[in-house]
Amino acid sequence: xxxxxxxxxxxxxxxxxxxxxxxxxxxxxxxxxxxxxxxxxxxxxxxxxxxxxxxxxxxxxxxxxxxxxxxxxxxxxxxxxxxxxxxxxxxxxxxxxxxxxxxxxxxxxxxxxxxxxxxxxxxxxxxxxxxxxxxxxxxxxxxxxxxxxxxxxxxxxxxxxxxxxxxxxxxxxxxxxxxxxxxxxxxxxxxxxxxxxxxxxxxxxxxxxxxxxxxxxxxxxxxxxxxxxxxxxxxxxxxxxxxxxxxxxxxx
Length: 252
Description:
By secondary structure, the protein is α+β, with helices and mostly antiparallel strands. A hairpin with a 2-residue loop joins strand 5 and strand 6 (125-134). The protein is globular and about 100 Å long. The chain is built from 5 helices and 12 strands. The chain has 2 domains: 1-32; 36-242, Lipoprotein localisation LolA/LolB/LppX (outer membrane lipoprotein receptor (LolB), chain A, Clam), CATH 2.50.20.10.
């Protein structure tokens, strides 16, 4: 009889222990579900989202609003191919920061140490703020912040200090193309110089050569460049010869 009672007691204790362990497991799973992904995983998610886009051709229109300068609207054709190759057919686009023209998160992971510095919840969508620090001293952009939309894993904002003596901010909007490719629809590049320029206004011809952009650099000016992307041709099989021997071949 005593043996039976001990057996029932042991079974009861075992059941209680299993209930406690199950509750702990549920709590642990819930905590893990709430934990944000790592910075490296966030960039990997962005990379995987665009992995099916091997190359594309896109038409670009740009409007420049630069302090004390009048520059007409510009048009260009941009060619992109993985890994990290960009070519722009338009001499007046020489000054445009290549880092924003065609984002390549794989190159970011290779060239920068990345850390997660903040998470925001906007309309139920997680926005992750990353800090990127260049691994090599030769990298042009030494440090920048990147904001990632966790809804469809796209980069919505980049900010770097300094860029040629200015604060450089890039804002992106996206659209879904062919029902499966999230690609940039617009980009706005904002420059903020530490001081205002007081030189005379310069007006350039409709199609300006690259010295126009040298003038934009000296002295530093505040302003913005707004781009609109249209008529994407995706995965056309671009060859490497499109990028060979051109200054825009790679964005190092």
